[in-house]
């Protein structure tokens, strides 16, 4: 049988078959780099289309890429759009079926500072293709914001996006249908620490009618119950509370049970925080390159990869492990069930 395989399959074909099912073969490791961008590319965020393709927001250039995780051959990430008059992309959220909102603005990966007033939110619509590319249009210039970062839709069918402002330490509510925006949540728990850099609330996602958020350098994961409907949709209905003092946290994703998988840029770990606040380090730490520079993550959406957490990185531009070189931002497939 071995000889038959060898005769029938050219090595390159066999390679394609193997690389077409990353992290799914019994022998494949639980943590696999499936794609790497050119050196010094900072991937800041990720969303997954219903067809399984990954959308990758670059922060070191104003570019949105798409990658098929089932066949991520070198160079196969497709540039979908370069946004004008901006230096990079931050949060991303699906607002309608196969329509995504993307945060665009100026944050320097050299000085680690924002340009207040430079931030806008755009719509990327895969239901209306032009030349095989999604139609892109601006939703709003959020000129009063200082640094728009993580973003989530308030609830399925809602017109509201909640967007973390990491420098002002507030959450903006943007109506993507009318382009109106205002501050909807504010708390000392969202305020930035002043060092090492001014960066407070970072990732934000909704679970069980609460808004959960990381505070980067105050080093905790917190939540507040909110109302999902009506004119006050998005506003607090209870107290702000710390879920876990878990250290540095960037963006994160929930599983169906409400466990949060937190990317720990710049401290290079991947954590699981349970709804009760129990913290488990799944991978990495400040001395490990396994998920070095991890900024955000998202679960696969097809039967083949629904247990795979796709983690994206900045290649160590921030959080570089001592004694290593900066690399290109990576997409890492993590089989979380294998790590528990
Ligand atoms: C943001 O950066 C872009 C590209 O360098 C520049 O064209 C634009 O003027 C900047 N925006 C602001 C508000 O400074
Ligand atoms: C959802 O919130 C309710 C009310 O706060 C709480 O009793 C319940 O335990 C929460 N469920 C989960 C899965 O966290
Ligand atoms: C990283 O390495 C340093 C130096 O060896 C050590 O002091 C520190 O405890 C290590 N940290 C972790 C999280 O392993
Ligand atoms: C990537 O670029 C940085 C900065 O120029 C450099 O220090 C590093 O060696 C490069 N990495 C690789 C793998 O070439």
UniProtKB/TrEMBL annotation:
<protein>
    <recommendedName>
        <fullName>SMP-30/Gluconolactonase/LRE-like region domain-containing protein</fullName>
    </recommendedName>
</protein>
<dbReference type="InterPro" id="IPR052998">
    <property type="entry name" value="Hetero-Diels-Alderase-like"/>
</dbReference>
<dbReference type="InterPro" id="IPR011042">
    <property type="entry name" value="6-blade_b-propeller_TolB-like"/>
</dbReference>
<keyword id="KW-0732">Signal</keyword>
<feature type="signal peptide">
    <location>
        <begin position="1"/>
        <end position="20"/>
    </location>
</feature>
């Amino acid at each position: 049988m071995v000889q038959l395989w060898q005769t029938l399959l050219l090595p390159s074909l066999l390679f394609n078959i193997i690389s077409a099912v990353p992290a799914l073969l019994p022998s494949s490791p639980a943590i696999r780099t499936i794609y790497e961008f050119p050196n010094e590319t900072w991937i800041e965020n990720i969303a997954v289309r219903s067809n399984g393709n990954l959308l990758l927001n670059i922060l070191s250039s104003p570019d949105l890429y798409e990658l098929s995780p089932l066949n991520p051959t070198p160079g196969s990430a497709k540039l979908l759009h370069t946004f004008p008059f901006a230096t990079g992309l931050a949060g991303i959220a699906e607002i309608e079926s196969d329509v995504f909102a993307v945060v665009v603005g100026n944050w320097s990966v050299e000085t680690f500072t924002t340009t207040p007033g430079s931030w806008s939110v755009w719509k990327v619509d895969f239901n209306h293709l032009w030349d095989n590319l999604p139609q892109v249009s601006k939703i709003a210039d959020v000129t009063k914001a200082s640094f728009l970062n993580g973003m989530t839709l308030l609830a399925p069918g809602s017109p509201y996006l909640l967007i973390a402002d990491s420098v002002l330490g507030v959450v903006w509510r943007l109506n993507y249908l009318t382009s109106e925006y205002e501050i909807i949540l504010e708390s000392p728990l969202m305020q930035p620490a002043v060092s090492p850099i001014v960066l407070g609330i970072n990732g934000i996602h909704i679970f069980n009618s609460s808004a959960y958020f990381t505070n980067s350098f105050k080093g905790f994961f917190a939540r507040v119950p909110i109302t999902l409907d009506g004119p006050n949709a998005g506003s607090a209905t209870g107290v702000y509370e710390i879920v876990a003092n878990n250290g540095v946290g960037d963006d994160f994703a929930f599983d169906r049970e409400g466990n949060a998988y937190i990317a720990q840029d710049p401290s290079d770990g991947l954590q699981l925080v349970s709804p009760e606040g129990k913290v488990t380090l799944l991978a990495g730490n400040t001395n490990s390159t396994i998920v070095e520079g991890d900024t955000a993550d998202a679960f696969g959406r097809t039967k083949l990869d629904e247990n795979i957490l796709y983690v994206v990185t900045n290649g160590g531009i921030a959080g570089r492990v001592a004694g290593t070189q900066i690399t290109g931002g990576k997409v890492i497939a993590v089989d979380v069930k294998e790590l528990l």
